[in-house]
Fold this protein.
Amino acid sequence: MSISGLVYAVRDITLDIRKGEILGIVGESGCGKSMTAKSILRLHDEKKMEYGGSILLDGEKDILKMSKKELREMRGRDISMIFQDPITTLNPLKTIGKQILEMYQLHTDISGEEAQAKVLELLDLVGIVPAQDRFRQYPFELSGGQLQRVCIAMALACRPKLLIADEPTTALDVTMQAQVLDLLKRLQRKYNSSVLLITHNFGVVAEICDRIAVMYAGQIVESGDVREIFYHPCHPYTKDLIASIPKTGQHGTQLTTIPGMPPRLNQDIVGCPYAPRCTKVCDRCRTEAPPLKNAGETHEYLCFLEPDNSREVSA
């Protein structure tokens, strides 16, 4: 289905990513997760889109006001990104070692010999061994899981303050997904980096995240600590997402699905965007934007339901 006209892909969201934590943004395809992630690095074609508000690095520097030179210096040094498909991320005409070396050449003044030693150390750290041999190989000579490890090594080369991982395990099989997630968490702890993890998989979020932001139709509809969201979800959309997770011991049971489709983002949304699909909907939901409510010190959600009334479904 094609969409024409002005698209409001992200609508008035507020996020804060704390030092040393993993924040997961979860939601179905088309809800604005990747758009949000790429906006932090201003990777979109700014001739075709418009940003609003501010994106603060260290609470001070507004990324939206940075010059092109400042952006080049910031990308890879202060904030790095791991993309969904490592095959399209890496240059097929350059060796693995040379591509990681470029990170040091761009953002540090260390010698070539020292940079190469650091690359070999990184490759060994992420499990690309023997590092000396892999250094000289091209992307087509490695598997998908190995390529994603290379991308993680490249993203962490300059020990950025924030690492953005946009669906980093989508192109991998289940076994390799678990290995990559475990690697990501170990390296995050080692370097004490902040991580913004973009995913549609609640299972991934439960595995490695400290906090969760649930996104729908370009809005953050619920956010809080992992345990709060899983055991006491308040927004009907969050409950429906959790209910749709396949559970062990239920072989042959029909999976729970969410009926309907998300709203088209090139149109004004009146009332709650989830109202057409929500089983708790009332007349007010269709005409008024829901308020932001607190369900705990760190737990917020957008809904007319009170916290006690919204806990009829739990993880």
In short: The longest helix spans residues 174-191. Confidence is low (pLDDT under 50) at residues 311-315.
